[in-house]
Amino acid sequence: MPVAVLEGDPVYVGGISKTVTYKGYHFDIGGHRFFSKSKEVEDLWSELLPDDMLVRPRSSRILYRGKFFSYPLKAGEALVKLGIFETLRCVLSYGWARVRPVRNPRSCEDWVSNQFGRRLFSIFFKTYTEKVWGMDCKEISADWAAQRIKGLSLSTAVLAALFPKKKARTGGAVVKTLIDSFRYPRRGPGMMWEACAAKVWALGGTVAMGRRVTQCRYTPETAQWTVTTRDAAGGEQCATAAQLISSTPMRELVAMLGDQVSDEARHAAGELKYRDFITVVLMLKDRGVFADNWIYIHDPTVQVGRVQNFKSWSPEMVPDPAMTCYGLEYFCFEHTGLWNLTDEELQALARREIVQLGIARAEDIVDAHVVRQLKAYPVYDDAYAGHVETIRAELEAKFPTLHLVGRNGMHKYNNQDHSMMTAMLCAKNILAGERQFDLWGVNEDAEYHESGEHRAAAAGLRQVPRAVSAAG
Length: 472
Prior knowledge:
By secondary structure, this protein is α+β, with helices and mostly antiparallel strands.
């Protein structure tokens, strides 16, 4: 069947997985490691970029009080760098968490404290997490921590450090947080989606750039969608479709549906929040200060939350081997605080903070560039799950040919392989003419390539009985 992709960005495909270019430099928005427990996802990556995927070492560290700590934590290193008394406090705190855990933890603070102890939480999680979300950890849902740090605890990290040849496992599977290598397109993840767009064209589909969707109308009598878009010049176009797949933020989708949904659903959508994202890219002389993919900044005296080293992702991201390229990541809300600064003000801030952190010299910085990304992270506050369920239930009941996929489409803070699998299963459902797979059942650690009733259960998916059609 013919497919049309409506892309709001006038230049880049891939959404947050795009690769921005500037004067021969390539920037990844947020850092995207290509690793999946799904053979099906890995196979698709290999099909799209058969000759362009590098195998890169995984390296992330935490910068805390001027010292680098490996992440995940290494017991011996932490002992030396924290000092014996601080380490004892961490161990005692962890022991207390084992003996007296918070029952039914609801907040991120309680969940992480249960896994690592409250002392390690305050040292290695609190500052960075609150920078990311702009909220106190007590206000962030435990769902976020459980999804992003699933399977990892202090004991798991210590075992991985003591027995590196025997990867720490949970239920027989390698904990994703502990992987030591990953694949990566030689010029950034955007290569993957540019290749994907080329395939869409080659197979008879279309990819319309710079087309922002403003309205979606469903006609039950014909089971047809009419989608209205607006281009950069303000011109409107309409397209019709039998099936509508949405990766747009759930809040915006509900607004596009307008009076076709209830006041309750519109209210729930209006309550959903998103965290926006700014990367200030600095081009500077390479002095080999750090070789990590990124470092987490656990320092409340600066606003930067994480620093990417794009050259570490792939040397081809930087056009001159004598140079390197750092991406300083700032988390904010649209139209407030950092977002309202000019590009020049953001560049000046990044230059000051990178020098303050001691990982660059002011005289080595030769250029800078700012990239802004709206709605990078769906916010997991206390009320988000109820709002999502309200919207989901109504959309499924009223619109049998509407399919929500991906991070923002489902308001789920997924990794890219998880988001891709929701789309892949969605395509299978459409081709089968029935809802064989519940996309909301895809979980981050699923062996997605499994299929069939038994294998779907093993993958953590709920397979919908074949007698139930999409309209049911």
